[in-house]
Design the sequence.
């Protein structure tokens, strides 16, 4: 293991087997993964569903033990409990004690983390305000919306002012407003000097917030580095454009100019073009008097994007 | 000191969870009805009215005590795992042993609170019916409370590794065997076959001897209760529960939370 003080999370050659069925057979869920998270960065642990992201995070949280290999956080082996005063954790789709009020909930976690009694009240008030729940602190958690639960969950992870925060799919299942709120909170964490480790399968979130990523597919790390480098090297994204009130002569011209198939019904057509051609297509269509109904980037499944990109990266 | 504070926080949260649960009130409601119903039943009899009343009262406290012990003991630990609230707790500086001890102490506190409420109803009904009350009744109810603490440790042990359904079944099984083991041993001693004697003796040694917590007959009939009859079961329960918690914590610490 490294002694570099800048390395906050150090995962080395971790394998994990889970028993299948009656437990006679084993399935390898993690296959020798290694990566490092550095101080002060937002690190995205990215991959399609079922790739082993949550299993990795559970190993880091000491909830399951690795079959082989080991992991350290802040220089401590993850099987220890003492150092957990310095880390915070928000699980995926958290279900919290719904019989507690927001304030009681945070007080419970503050006690568990050993926050001194005198500081608790102030700390909890600051956190409630920070996540925008200052008016909901005395309501029971069962009355909270999904976005509010995610935010109180984030507050719970931060109640003891940890150095490193681990988030499992922090933005999944939220509406667009909720996602923006959580994203802004994560960016504020970095501004406060925290290190953030987040699991996600949502690419736009990664592109928005992460400084560095590790990409895991089928239990193996396929890439570690900047997300931009990874995506540029990878996929050419097709875009679907739907146009209405299209003059009769326009459709053949589009087919010819953009070498793409045009499907249509009466004066409404659907065209698939490369991302770089979208501007030119819209210019042409608007110039001919057509209406633009929608422009939708088409994405293949994450797994195929990752796999294709990985192949092109040449690993 | 910090460990103590963490265990206390988990225990307090467990009590809060239990007393904010509706099912608990339903059970308590029926217990109180049954204890009160003793008044009605006693009026049907011409003889030993007070004894029938108090017999039924103590039996209700025991029966509903065990029902509540099963419900909270098995349910609340499984819920933490099932709803993944345990993930956030164990990601804090809390060991699995701390978690289990805190949970156990919270469950015992909840049960004892229920026993106090049922005991108050018992005292009320006895006073209304003019039945005698003395230290024997206090000892009988006290030992029911101690027995429940032991039953919860059995429930905690099983729910540390199996499903709530199985954990409930095992706990009920042990409860029944625990109450029969004394009689079984007596039966076995009268048997000619050595093997039967060994098996019944073994059952008696391994399973908790729950009949030793039953002072209802002495209490209701106003017989003298020695300090040994109270002291021995208390010490026995403390050792037995501590041993079960030790095993539970060992099992729980090795578990993967998938």
Sequence:
């Amino acid at each position: 293991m490294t002694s570099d003080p800048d390395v906050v999370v150090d995962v080395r050659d971790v394998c994990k087997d889970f028993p299948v069925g009656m437990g006679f057979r084993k399935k390898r869920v993690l296959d020798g993964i290694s990566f490092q998270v550095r101080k002060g960065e937002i690190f995205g642990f990215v991959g399609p569903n079922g790739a082993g992201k949550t299993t990795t995070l559970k190993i880091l949280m000491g909830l399951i033990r690795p079959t082989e290999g080991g992991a350290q956080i802040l220089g401590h082996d993850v099987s220890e409990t003492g150092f957990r005063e310095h880390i915070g954790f928000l699980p995926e789709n958290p279900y919290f004690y719904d019989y507690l009020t927001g304030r009681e909930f945070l007080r419970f976690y503050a006690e568990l983390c050993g926050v001194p009694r005198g500081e608790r009240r102030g700390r909890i008030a600051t956190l409630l305000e920070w996540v925008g729940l200052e008016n909901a602190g005395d309501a029971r958690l069962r009355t909270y919306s999904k976005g509010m639960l995610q935010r109180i969950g984030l507050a719970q992870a931060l109640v003891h002012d940890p150095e490193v925060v681990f988030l499992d799919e922090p933005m999944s299942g939220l509406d667009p407003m909720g996602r923006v709120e959580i994203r802004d909170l994560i960016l504020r964490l970095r501004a406060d000097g925290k290190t953030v480790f987040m699991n996600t399968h949502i690419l736009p979130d990664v592109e928005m917030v992460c400084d560095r990523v590790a990409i895991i597919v089928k239990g193996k790390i396929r890439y570690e580095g900047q997300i931009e480098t990874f995506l540029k090297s990878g996929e050419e994204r097709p875009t679907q454009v739907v146009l209405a009130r299209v003059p009769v002569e326009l459709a053949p011209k589009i087919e010819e100019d953009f070498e793409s198939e045009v499907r249509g019904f009466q004066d409404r057509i659907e065209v698939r073009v490369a991302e770089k051609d979208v501007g030119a297509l819209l210019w042409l269509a608007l110039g001919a008097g057509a209406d633009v109904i929608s422009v939708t980037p088409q994405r293949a499944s994450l797994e195929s994007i990752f796999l294709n990109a990985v192949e092109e990266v040449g690993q | 000191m910090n460990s103590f504070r963490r265990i206390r926080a988990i225990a307090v949260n467990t009590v809060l969870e239990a007393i904010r649960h509706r099912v608990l009130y339903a059970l308590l409601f029926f217990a109180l009805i049954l204890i009160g119903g003793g008044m009605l039943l006693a009026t049907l009899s011409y003889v030993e009215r007070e004894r029938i009343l108090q017999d039924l009262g103590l039996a209700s406290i025991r029966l509903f005590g065990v029902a509540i012990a099963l419900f909270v003991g098995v349910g609340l630990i499984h819920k933490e795992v099932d709803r993944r609230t345990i993930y956030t707790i164990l990601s804090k500086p809390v060991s699995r042993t701390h978690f289990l001890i805190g949970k156990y102490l919270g469950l015992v506190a909840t049960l004892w609170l229920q026993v106090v409420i049922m005991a108050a109803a018992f005292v009320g009904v006895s006073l209304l019916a003019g039945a005698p009350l003395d230290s024997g009744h206090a000892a009988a109810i006290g030992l029911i409370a101690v027995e429940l603490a032991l039953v919860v440790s059995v429930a905690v042990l099983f729910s540390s590794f199996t499903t709530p359904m199985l954990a409930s079944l095992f706990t009920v099984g042990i409860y029944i065997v625990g109450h029969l083991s004394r009689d079984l041993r007596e039966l076995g001693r009268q048997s000619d076959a050595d093997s039967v004697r060994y098996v019944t003796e073994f059952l008696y040694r391994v399973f908790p001897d729950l009949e030793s917590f039953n002072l209802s007959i002495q209490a209701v009939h106003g017989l003298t209760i020695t300090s040994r009859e109270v002291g021995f079961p208390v010490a026995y329960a403390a050792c037995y529960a501590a041993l079960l918690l030790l095993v539970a914590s060992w099992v729980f610490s090795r578990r993967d939370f998938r």
Q: What stands out?
A: Residues 176-191 of chain A form the longest helix (16 residues).
